[in-house]
Amino acid sequence: MKTAKIVIGLGFGDEGKGITTDFLAKQNPGSIVIRFSGGQQAAHTVMIEGKKHVHSSFASGALRGLPSYYSEHCTIHPVFLFNEKEELEEKGGNTELHIHPLAKITTPFDVWQNRNSVRNLDHGTCGKGVGATMKRNEGQYKLYAIDLIAPRQMLLEKLEKIAYYYGFLNESEIDAEVDHYLEIIDKIKWNISDYSFLENYETLIFEGSQGILLDMDHGVFPNVTYANTTSKNAIEICNKLKIENIEVFYATRSYTTRHGHGWMPNERELKLKNNEEETCVFNEYQKELRFGDLDYDLLNYALKLDAAYSPKAKRNLVVTCMDQLEKEYEFEKLTTDFNEIYGSFSPDSKDFKAIASLFQ
Questions:
Q1: Binding-site residues for Mg(2+), please?
Q2: What is the CATH number of the domain that holds 148?
Q3: 14 annotated active-site
Q4: Domain containing residue 324
Q5: Which of 22, 44, 77, 306 is the catalytic position?
Q6: Which residue ranges make up the annotated binding site for IMP?
Q7: Out of 14, 22, 110, 306, which one is annotated catalytic?
Q8: Distance, C-alpha 24 to centroid of its chain
Q9: 266/277 Cα distance (integer angstroms)
Q10: Binding site: what residues are annotated?
Q11: Higher-pLDDT residue of 180, 115
Q12: Within 13 Å, how many C-alpha atoms sit on residue 206's CB side?
């Protein structure tokens, strides 16, 4: 029987989806990891025996040796993809990547739009062109993965029209950007595969992006992402493949984080340890990584919200970064709190083996 394991972030992103996905990849070595939202703005960190990789254009099973699949709900930037491919190959990771024909393709002009829009800079952006790509594809100026293998003149025409769409009028400037972009595209072997390709695998691991509280339909607008970050897209794909055995793994840190602008509860300065490997640090687009105490009412809100999209799924709660709590009593209090709210919670319990194996 085909099985789907879906990894979802319960918060504002940065909850530990990468290491949770890697944990499932280790348990299911013959599986494939599917990205079903977001794109190249992801920064999912995995460390294996001293090797570290931040997965953005490849799913978080790649360092473990699993292939990646990007669904129609994702974006791909060929230049970012190529650069990460070279990094991953040096580390011995798996760079096999299959992309749905209708995945959205990011251009240099989308990145420019994301980084220079006053609205984006005020509301928050990763500066990787994802939001601009999704917005553009709602109109007439679409660009899909299938277009990367279309006749070259057709692709050229589409790229030029996208440049004009954003107000680029300097022909030499457009030509320079397009020439470099096409040069990179030609260096990549494009595996364009619809969902029937996934029939080759008994276990599918779905890796989410950002968190439920940044969902475009459910987050606090305007500080949201341009994606459905609930299990909605993953369940949609499972239904197409007629998969009924579905398990969801909801990830949260042992404290709250938010990278950039927007509302978050219980914000305060936390003294954390062992976070020298923190991937999410200050950058000019998202600004500071902010911290706070967990809000259990908000966690329950996110859990109940997602259950509306995956009512028949089995559910697991994964708490990450427990080793970063500064004081022993904070760890004990966290364990007590989770016991009282969710029942039978223990880092050593069978249901929460991921916690014991990864973080203690």
A1: 14
A2: 1.10.300
A3: yes
A4: 3-101+192-359
A5: 44
A6: 14-17, 210, 225, 287
A7: 14
A8: 16
A9: 24
A10: 13-19, 210, 225, 287, 321-323
A11: 180
A12: 31
